[in-house]
Amino acid sequence: MASTTTDDSTISSSSSSFEKRLTLVNSTQESVQTLSLWILYHRSQYEHLIKTWFKVLKKSKPLHRLTLFYVANDVIQNAKKHNALVYQQAFKPFLNSSMIYVKENAIKKKVQRILEIWRERGVYDEDFIDELLKKLVGTEVYEKDKEVTRVIAEFQPKSLCESLIRFKQLEGETLVKEQMINNDLKLIDGMSIENVRKLKDKTSTDAYYIEYENSREKFQEYVRYFERLLHERKTIKQHCKQAEIFYDAQYQDANIVVEAYKNFGDKVATLKKKLDSLIRDLPETVSPPSADNVPSP
């Protein structure tokens, strides 16, 4: 009985200590990795540690939930290296349940990025990642994001250019066909039962028939060209939509790079100001004594 009481007391104390660690961890890489290594080292207590992680996650504020997700990410991705693969499977049900707690707009995109990295690196299987993403962003948004990802991966600017060239060429050819049938409009307009009845002999009837067939074939050819033109327009419209998605993503990526360089430049400028200030405060350099003033031995 005394042993059981001692074990319960130890677990309670350990839980309280770990909760404090989870509460105090911050989003810096050093803080996240330090706690992650501690969790990996105590892998024998994995069930208790994961349940405590989820408990603290639920009652934390959004930004701290993101930090705790960073901790889980570091544990999961480094589990194999530290002979603690048990964490990858043990975390799965809690990750599934945690999605409703990380849906806030301030952190959702960053959590989504972690899930995408897990997919890219094969940390978890496709079906599980899909399940998490649907819970995180909603099925409709997820399907749309999936399509955007596909377009960005598959879009070829060359295809858009080739479609435009084909369309321009086909448009010109269709216009020629249209001009050709315009010359036959009077014949078509003049066709009626009364005019046919006026044909008195075989020669005039055959001539009329040949002219009619020629006009009909021109119209049919024009219709075929026009249908191809409509199809090509739909293709271009689709390419343009994909181009908009692709170049918008490129623009956003470029903005991220520009912002990163801007922040780096600001840090360098701030550091330069500090160095200039320190240089100004340095004592003036004392000139070394000349050879004439050096005492003889």
UniProtKB/TrEMBL annotation:
Domain CID, chain residue ranges per copy: 10-140
Alphabetical list of SUPFAM superfamilies matching this protein: ENTH/VHS domain
Pfam families in UniProt: CID
Protein name (Swiss-Prot/TrEMBL): CID domain-containing protein
InterPro entries reported in the protein's UniProt record: CID_dom, ENTH_VHS
Biological process annotations from GO: mRNA 3'-end processing
CDD domains reported for this sequence: CID_RPRD_like
Signal sequence extent: none
GO molecular function, one term: RNA polymerase II complex binding
